[in-house]
Amino acid sequence: MKRTINLLIIGLNSLSIVAQEQWTMNRCISYAIEHANSVRKQRIEIRQSRYDMTMAGLDFLPTISAQLSGQYSWGRNIDPETNTYNTITTFNNYYSIGAEMRLFDGGRTFNAFRQARLARLNSETALQKAADDKAVVVMTKFIEAVYHQKSIGLALRKLADSKALLHKTRSLFELGEKSRPDVVQIESQVAEDDYNLLHQQNAAQSALLALKSEMNFPVEDSLELDTSVVSCPISTDDAGHIYEMFGSESPDVKLAVFKAENARYTYLIQRGLLLPSLSLSGGISTNYYRNLSQKTKIGEVFGRQFHNNIGEYIYLQLSIPIFVPSRWRTVHRAKSDWLEAQLVLEDTKQKLNADIVQAVSDRDGCVREIVKMEKKVESDSLAYRLSVRKYEEGMLSAFDLHTAAQTLLESRIKLLQIQLTLEMKIRLVNYYKGNRLWTLK
Predict the structure, then answer these.
(1) CB 392 within 8 A of CB 168
(2) Which superfamily does 22-61+107-275+324-432 belong to?
(3) Which InterPro entries match (predicted)?
(4) How far apart are the first and last CA of the chain?
């Protein structure tokens, strides 16, 4: 007795573990987003965009550069002191350090910084867009996998009914109430149902592999899906109101806005090339010269020359582009890209509005279809039971009974499709309403 109780406890614990290992749609989506390479790439882009903005800010500061050169000469050359030819060996050493600051460059530096800052903000939107796209794909693959797995249950049920009917037909055949063709017809139906079961099992395996692939889940590991269909409460929504609330928050719209603004900054930067530029520069330089053919103290000569030859300079440079046709073409191209990006933004907003209207319409349509299809399944189920009774009484052929069974199976499958489609449409409408069912870690 004690051993039986222990086995029962172990069995219950095993069932609990199996139940805990079931993967819901939300869990699959969260796992996919966490392990998706597209999301990881966007996280790298976020770090890069922050670095780019920092570098763009440093462009406002002066640039500093230093130069050091040495020249070793031998053979016949000109003496710089006497301006006569001689044959000596000399060494020249030059040092300089300078700084340059752009006082005005047509706004190119300022607009480049604004463009980099915009790109940093957009990188967050691109990350959310990558997560949303991955979530939608995983949601679709999850629905397909659940559909095929639940179709296996329907196929098993159909096969069990056919086998029970075959057993009864054989019994009636032995009693002389059914003919041999009736038995053969039911055997053919059992074989067909057995094939359909195998086909559904293969389809379920393929759908599960596709889901694992989208999740970046190890293919060799098991993945037990939660196949329960939950009825979610549905509220009456106005597609126009949803668009007004979600239009400015949509990642697609935000990305289109970014592309339009980015094109505008590119146009301003290119236009700045047509304006004058003003820069201020200054620096210090010195040099050292030595005639290696003469013997002198290197340290004393170097120190004295290095100090005596020091010179400072400062200059202001104004550059005015007068005739540069290539820049005109670049500016015109940048302006055209900006105008095209604005048109793309308008198309994106219109498409989002149409998608929201379609999603709400599909969801409401699925609700109405489920009501009708549930009634049809109930009617087809009753018709099948009556057909079985008529078949047993010899009032219906095996072919007509097979037709009734297939009609019931198709109705059940159609109801399952609509139920799963409704769940996906509800999530999609909730997404447009701003209620994301997945989060980024």
Answers:
(1) yes
(2) Outer membrane efflux proteins (OEP) (1.20.1600.10)
(3) OMP_efflux, TolC-like
(4) 49
